[in-house]
Design the sequence.
C-alpha cells in the first residue's frame, strides 16, 4: 500500500443543530451524506484530482 499524501476535512454544515431537535432519521441522512462525500473525495484524490468540492444538500 502506498503512503497517502492528502487529507480530507469534512464538516456537516454551517448551521447549528441541537441534538434534541433532530430526528434519528434525519441524523442517519446527515451521516450517510457525509460518508458519501468522504467516499467520493477519497476516490478522486486517489486518482490524482485536486480540491474536489461537492455540496450534498439534505433538505
Sequence:
Amino acid at each position: 500500500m502506498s503512503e497517502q499524501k492528502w487529507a480530507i476535512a469534512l464538516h456537516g454544515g454551517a448551521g447549528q443543530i441541537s441534538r434534541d431537535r433532530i430526528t434519528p432519521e434525519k441524523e442517519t441522512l446527515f451521516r450517510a451524506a457525509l460518508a458519501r462525500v468522504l467516499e467520493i473525495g477519497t476516490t478522486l484524490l486517489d486518482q490524482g484530482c485536486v480540491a474536489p468540492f461537492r455540496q450534498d444538500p439534505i433538505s
User: Anything to note?
Assistant: The first helix runs from residue 24 to 46. Residues 41 and 52 are 6 Å apart (CA to CA).
